[in-house]
Every structure is written in structure tokens, then in C-alpha cells.
Specification:
Blueprint: E1 13-15, H1 18-25, E2 31-34, E3 41-43, H2 44-47, E4 56-58, E5 62-71, E6 79-83, E7 90-102, E8 108-112, E9 115-118, E10 121-127, E11 130-134, E12 144-146, E13 158-164, E14 168-170, E15 175-178, E16 181-186, E17 191-198, E18 201-205, E19 208-213, E20 218-224, E21 231-233, E22 237-241, E23 256-258, H3 260-263, H4 266-271
Parallel strand pairs: 1-2, 2-5, 3-5, 4-6, 5-7, 6-8, 7-9, 7-10, 8-11, 9-12, 10-13, 11-14, 12-15, 13-16, 15-17, 16-18, 17-19, 18-20, 19-21, 20-22, 22-23
């Protein structure tokens, strides 16, 4: 199927191949939807011989992946996707980018400004450079990974990233993570990172030596922490699992330490100002009076 639609909000471009996807998202302010009725996973190494040698330009105003998974993106280009420098928001939702490999010591997987992602999954290797990079200019819009954008079914984003050789999650401009789940594998932490976390969780290896959370609400760091430099927590309650602190480390000022057992104890969490919502028990079959 070739591209259909006119690219407006009322009549978005409809695509079902990688080639048409690249063409459609390169159109400034276009609205794009992926038709996943036949195939909902694109095996990148099989459809793009030699991988990406230059970045895919991403200028569309809105892209609804409809559950599409693009798997195994690789190539010699230092950046995989690059957004335009315009200040308009670019919405991306219901898409998964899994098992990618960024092997250059510079560049990024996603570069741009004012991207807003919802209900997306990301996994892969970031070997040097950054996972995301914010294009310079004024205003320098941050990337946001959030919920409920343009689609009432959208949820927060999840990340499973292997950060190697000093790779960072983002550059000097921090990203906003709302209702996100972040899992990291990393070398010995040496980098400084700032994130704006809101109701989010970090697991796996904690990859940052010095860390600033400039967000708010309730956040959880349930990750193995092997080193602590300069840490700060702007607002709200951010828990640290003390059972996963390396020997000799203590909970930084501004953070709240709890054990693994306490993380599962509603009363223990309430005692430190963290509100947990236990799962509701299902009602017995038959209803009342039986």
C-alpha cells in the first residue's frame, strides 16, 4: 500500500512500510498513522540493508504508531532520528523502538526539541554519546515522556537501556519523565545527570554518579547504587532502596531510604510520607446476599 491521506489532522497520512514512514514523518507539521492491521513489527535489519547511514528527519506534528514495533535499528550514522529545530510540539505515541544499537562514541538515538512521547517503549545499547540530545537554539524545548497525549489510552513510557562507555540518558538539557519505568544496565557510574521525574521508577543499575531530580510527586529508585557523588531532590518524596546501596554508602540528603520489605508495606511507606495504593481485592462471585 502506498501512502494515503493528505497529512492533515482530519485526514492523516496512512503508512505501512518503513520507506513510506520515513517519507511521511519528514513532512513538516504532518499527521501520520501507521497501519498495523497486517504487520505490527518491522525487523529493521531485514528491511534496511546496511542500516542507517544518515539520520531520519522527523518533522511531523503527530505520529500514532498504533502499537508498531521497530526492532533492531542500527547503522553507521551517529544519530538515528533527528527532529527539526522548529518550536512546535511533535507528538509520538503508541510506538516501540526495541533492541536498537547506537555504537558511535558521539551522537544520539533521538535528537530534537519539543518531542512529547506517550505509551512508547525503548530498549537497546547506547555505546557512548547520549540516548537523547536536545537541539540547541531558542527556545530549547525539552523532550517529555508522558501520558494521555492526544489519545486517552496513552500511558507512560518504559526504558531498558544498556549505557556503555560513559553514555548518558540525555545531554545537558534534562528530560521530563512522567509515570515512566526506567531500567538501566551500565558500567561503573561516572556521569552527571539531571532528570525531571514525576511518579516514576528506576531499576537495574543506577547509572549516574551525580544526580539531580528536579521533578516532584512520588518517585522510586529501586536500583543497585555503587557510588554516590552529589545528589539532590527538588520536591516530593523519592525513595531509595537501602538494601541496594553498596557497602559504606548512605542515603543522600533530600531522599528517603527504605528497605525492600518496607517498599512492600503500605503502613511503612505512609510513615515516610509515601502514599501507596494496594490492589483492590476482587468481589466474590454471586454478588451481595448470596
Amino acid at each position: 500500500m502506498s501512502i494515503s491521506g493528505t497529512g492533515t489532522q482530519a485526514d492523516p497520512y496512512i503508512v505501512d512500510t518503513w520507506a513510506d514512514f520515513v517519507t511521511a514523518v519528514g513532512n513538516s507539521n504532518a499527521y501520520v498513522e501507521v497501519d498495523t492491521s497486517t504487520v505490527n513489527t518491522w525487523d529493521f535489519p531485514k528491511i534496511v540493508e546496511g542500516g542507517l547511514t544518515t539520520a531520519v528527519t522527523w518533522s511531523a506534528a503527530s505520529v500514532n504508531g498504533n502499537g508498531l514495533t521497530i526492532k533492531g535499528i542500527y547503522g553507521s550514522g551517529i544519530t538515528r532520528f533527528i527532529g527539526s529545530s522548529v518550536s512546535n510540539n511533535k507528538y509520538v505515541y503508541n510506538m516501540n523502538f526495541l533492541d536498537f544499537n547506537k555504537s558511535s562514541d558521539v551522537g544520539s538515538v533521538f535528537s530534537g526539541k519539543n518531542f512529547i512521547w506517550g505509551n512508547c517503549q525503548f530498549s537497546g545499547i547506547v555505546d557512548g554519546g547520549t540516548f537523547i540530545n536536545h537541539i540547541t537554539g531558542s527556545p530549547r524545548g525539552k523532550m517529555t515522556f508522558t501520558t494521555g497525549i492526544l489519545d486517552s489510552t496513552a500511558h507512560g513510557c518504559s526504558f531498558s537501556l544498556n549505557l556503555k562507555n560513559g553514555a548518558k540518558f540525555c545531554d545537558s538539557e534534562f528530560a521530563i519523565i512522567q509515570h515512566g519505568n526506567m531500567n538501566f544496565t551500565c558500567d561503573e557510574p561516572t556521569i552527571t545527570e539531571e532528570l525531571e521525574l514525576h511518579e516514576s521508577k528506576i531499576t537495574g543499575d543506577f547509572p549516574f554518579l551525580s544526580f539531580t531530580n528536579s521533578g516532584s510527586g512520588q518517585n522510586v529508585i529501586d536500583a543497585d547504587i555503587s557510588a554516590i557523588g552529589t545528589w539532590s531532590n527538588a520536591n516530593g518524596v523519592t525513595l531509595i532502596n537501602t538494601d541496594k546501596l553498596a557497602s559504606g554508602l548512605s542515603v543522600p540528603t533530600g531522599f528517603t531510604g527504605v528497605t525492600s520489605a518496607q517498599m512492600l508495606d503500605v503502613d511503612a511507606l505512609a510513615a515516610v510520607g509515601f502514599t501507596a495504593y494496594p490492589e483492590e481485592e476482587p468481589e466474590p462471585e454471586g454478588g451481595e446476599g448470596e
